[in-house]
Write a structure and sequence with these properties.
Elements: E1 4-10, H1 14-26, E2 32-38, H2 43-56, E3 59-62, H3 74-88, E4 91-95, E5 99-100, H4 105-111, E6 117-125, E7 145-147, E8 156-159, H5 161-166, H6 180-189, E9 193-204, H7 215-218, H8 220-229
Parallel strand pairs: 1-2, 1-4, 2-3, 6-9
Antiparallel strand pairs: 4-8, 5-9, 6-8, 7-9
Length: 235
């Protein structure tokens, strides 16, 4: 039985995923386990993940073997992870595959997971150490750990067992693709505090697994056209 469950959804982008997985495995707190959810990566990349799982000792879930629902399968991932975490009475830590954690990142988040707290997030930075998407709203804030009602991302975020027990992810809207905004708002709605750690920083390379989303910054009109006409990136 683990007291901390760490998960990482992966969709190809093996260069960043390798780095992200290795960083988590090297910083695992005592009593933690790691699950990688492989969301229909190519067969070659899936084979690589299988070899990595054997070598490094993490659990690998290949959604291609379990569902015919097309990627993204974030809803299924969150539902499975929540079920396992509740069974063990464990906090759930989500680390995205385009995020590299530090040696003490996860442990520092765990230390903030006190009664009344729903979510704890490490702030994201670029390679120059500047706060970047999705926490640009925090760029001018002072350091420390702050309670905020602004949206959280799942880049590197802990969901406490108290919150997990109070809100079932079965209720997540199946027509959506992503749920970090909805879940962070639900945490506040249920009376929990969401804590953003401004001095606990993780390297974030946005959207490495879905390069088309870079259009949000390089060609916003094309991005939003695809978002509307192809029903992509539904939040």
């Amino acid at each position: 039985m683990s007291t901390i469950h760490i998960i990482m959804p992966v969709k190809d982008s093996l260069d960043t995923a390798r780095e992200a997985i290795a960083a988590v495995m090297q910083s695992m707190p005592e009593g933690a386990d790691m699950t990688v959810y492989n969301d229909f990566s190519t067969h070659e990349n899936t084979d690589t993940l299988k070899h990595m799982a054997y070598a490094l000792g993490f659990r690998l879930v290949n959604w291609e073997e379990l569902t015919d629902h097309p990627s993204p399968n974030y809803r299924l991932t969150l539902q499975d992870a929540q079920k396992r975490a509740i069974a063990d009475g464990a906090h759930l830590v989500i680390v995205e595959s385009d995020v590299t954690v530090g040696k003490n990142t996860i442990q520092q988040m765990i230390e903030q997971a006190k009664p009344g707290v729903g979510m704890v997030a490490a702030v994201t930075v670029d390679t120059d150490g500047n706060i970047n998407f999705p926490y640009l709203y925090a760029a001018k804030m002072n350091g420390g750990t702050i309670a905020t009602s602004k949206r959280f991302s799942f880049c590197c975020t802990l969901l406490t067992i108290d919150f997990l027990k109070k809100y079932s992810f079965i209720q997540l809207d199946p027509t959506k693709s992503w749920y970090d905004v909805a879940i962070s708002h639900m945490s506040n709605h249920l009376g929990f505090r969401n804590l953003l750690m401004l001095d606990n920083r993780v390297l974030h390379r946005p959207h490495s697994s879905r390069p088309w989303k870079q259009l949000k910054y390089t060609n916003p009109l094309k991005y939003y056209w695809q978002k509307i006409t192809r029903k992509r990136d539904r939040i």
